[in-house]
Amino acid sequence: MIAHRLFHTVLLCSLAAAGQGVAKDLGTHGPLFEVAEPSLLDTIKARLKDMEAAGELDAMRQEMQDTTRAYVSRPRPVQGLGKAEDYAIWEVDMSITLTEDLADHQGQIFAHAGTVVNPMAYSRFNKRIVLLDGDDPDQVSFALSDGDELDTLLVLVNGDPLGLMREHGRRFYFDQDAVLVKRFGVQNVPAVVQRADPFMQVEEIALGKGGEIAQ
């Protein structure tokens, strides 16, 4: 027992001595120099000056402008779509099921989780949506043959919306990220989406020459 206590005493003394050794000031040996690092901002400025002198900066600006202009004039086409060869029609239920209670600004719950809500009951949107390939003259003719900007939205899945707008004097939109195509389950174009309460109705329409509806 005594030997055991003696061992712990020696161990604690050794650790204390070691700790004092770590904390001891050993003084200064050799000359000291201030740490000098170049400013990150100065480095960037210098790099930009070098790029400007070499003409790289102008080339980068031009590339960015060309990329932006190309994206705006001809966005990436929606993938996986075909050209309608047969007539097809179906309905899409726009209803959603709430995943949590909805409350007003006073905390009063007006819709409980699990409630099925059809936005068609609250929306006044009543325009036709024509989804089309802007590089197909027949589809463009079909899209322009009925309605105007007050009642019809022309939405491209491929093509040049700005060029078509200049050519026909109508606004052409683009289905970015295939939001409409996915929501309405469109597989072929042209397709017409319109209100048919309490649903939205989708038609894929086969065309003949000149954009006439195939019989």
From TrEMBL:
It comes from the Bacteria. InterPro entries: TraW, TraW_N_dom. Residues 9-36 form the Type-F conjugative transfer system protein TraW N-terminal domain. Keywords: Signal. It holds the Pfam family TraW_N. Residues 1-23 form the signal peptide. NCBIfam families: TraW. This is Conjugal transfer pilus assembly protein TraW. The lineage of its organism: Bacteria, Pseudomonadati, Pseudomonadota, Alphaproteobacteria, Rhodobacterales.
